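[Discussion] Sanity-checking designs against the backbone

I'm trying to build intuition for which residues belong where. Below is a structure token string of 200 positions. I'd appreciate it if someone posts a full sequence so I can compare it with mine line by line.
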């Protein structure tokens, strides 16, 4: 009888322990999913926000300042990706005439956008109670300017139907959506106020 009981215990442990771990994993995942959904609820492109920022859930949790940093960090990465694509188009002379001139403008505007986003991230890493209001004003100005830069790039290719142009337009449009989301997260930080910057 003792041997049978031991076997039963072993079998139960084998089957129940993984189930317990899996359930715990689902609980953690669900909680992280709640964090990012709550943070992204203030953005215009919520599905894109959730997809691009989900990996920050455990670190950012319910901190508006951390979500704002995450939003700007992701935007910087995406802007750099588009910059690399623009550079390839220029290097291999894929575009001609008006589109080549528009490409040069895009390269310039994206360089400006990247600079504005880097300045924004620098401020978000050094938030201060003494200058919080001024910092929020600067962030709004710079990220809005980056968004304008991206829109200016799109304007240069308006009405163009080529496959390469359409692909570029889609990439720039996607970045503009991500930038818009980052701006919304920064504005959320601004409205939340000083209590949201007590964490490091």
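Best answer:
Here's mine. Compare freely.
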């Amino acid at each position: 009888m003792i041997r049978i009981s031991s076997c039963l215990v072993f079998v139960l442990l084998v089957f129940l322990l993984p189930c317990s771990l899996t359930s715990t994993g689902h609980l953690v995942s669900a909680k992280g999913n709640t964090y990012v959904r709550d943070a992204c609820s203030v953005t215009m492109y919520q599905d894109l926000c959730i997809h691009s920022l989900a990996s920050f859930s455990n670190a950012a949790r319910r901190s508006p300042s951390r979500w704002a940093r995450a939003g700007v960090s992701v935007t910087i990465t995406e802007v750099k990706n588009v910059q690399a694509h623009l550079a390839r188009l220029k290097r291999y002379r894929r575009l001609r005439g008006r589109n080549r001139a528009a490409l040069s403008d895009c390269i310039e505007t994206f360089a400006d956008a990247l600079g504005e986003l880097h300045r924004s991230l620098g401020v978000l890493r050094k938030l201060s109670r003494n200058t919080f209001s001024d910092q929020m004003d600067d962030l709004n100005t710079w990220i809005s300017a980056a968004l304008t830069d991206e829109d200016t790039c799109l304007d240069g290719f308006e009405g163009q139907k080529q496959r390469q142009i359409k692909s570029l337009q889609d990439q720039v449009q996607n970045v503009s959506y991500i930038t818009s989301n980052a701006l919304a997260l920064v504005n959320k930080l601004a409205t939340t106020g000083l209590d949201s910057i007590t964490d490091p």
